[in-house]
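Review form for a predicted model. The reviewer records the input and the model, then writes brief findings.
Reviewer: anonymous (R2)
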Amino acid sequence: MLADNREIIIESDVSAIHQAEFDFKGFTFHFQPIFCLKTNKVVMYEALLRSRQFAGISIEELVIDVISSGKSDQLTLLTLEAIRPYVSDPKFNDVKFTVNLEPAQVASEGFKRLVNYYFRKFKIDMTRVIFEITERPCSHKMFNDVLVNTNSMTANGYLFAIDDFGTGVSNFEMLCELDVYMIKLDGNFGIKSLHDINCQKVFKFVSTFNESFGCKVCAEGLETEEHVELARGLGFCFGQGYGLGMPKVLTGIVE
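Model under review:
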């Protein structure tokens, strides 16, 4: 979940794919497991951006500044580069990888071209990667551009998810407009589900979306075993949170 609700404003056009050079040496990625709550096995890893260079700045603020400076496609490319070694590693053949994308990234004029180029160049299986659209507030035009690009790419086989459902633009309008692979319920509902009756009602309601909308549903914010058991009992497909697994650096890549 993104704590900073500032709308991203693009100051300049991003460069073409072959010119998308950037110097993000201080950026790293950790990976948090997402479990199937029926089998209790890891079925996905979410790539989470971290920064050593800008330790005093939150990731949310840093992402806003990067995109607002016109480096939307560069950030997307950086994220794809982070997951590519794992997607290509036989050790991880049975899992998918999810990446967080701001609405501004998905709405970028170069987004479809960049992703298509990258997936073809490195022969990446589209079913192994899920693009999570974050809840960042955005303009009406940007929101429409997100819908157009997402629907176009979904029709060609790419997988998308609505991240932090129930906050920001991650709402019912987006759910009705997109054919998404997965909905991830915002972690605050999961965290509060044990003690807040209204959050419990939301938690239970969203757990039915698998049948209602034909998409997978992931409960975020599962911080304890009690949270996990509640989500499992309600029939959530997937679960994510510290009660299941912490973000970490993955190992075992086959060179």
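Findings: The chain has one domain: 26-239.
Further findings: The longest strand covers residues 41-51.
Recommendation: see findings above.
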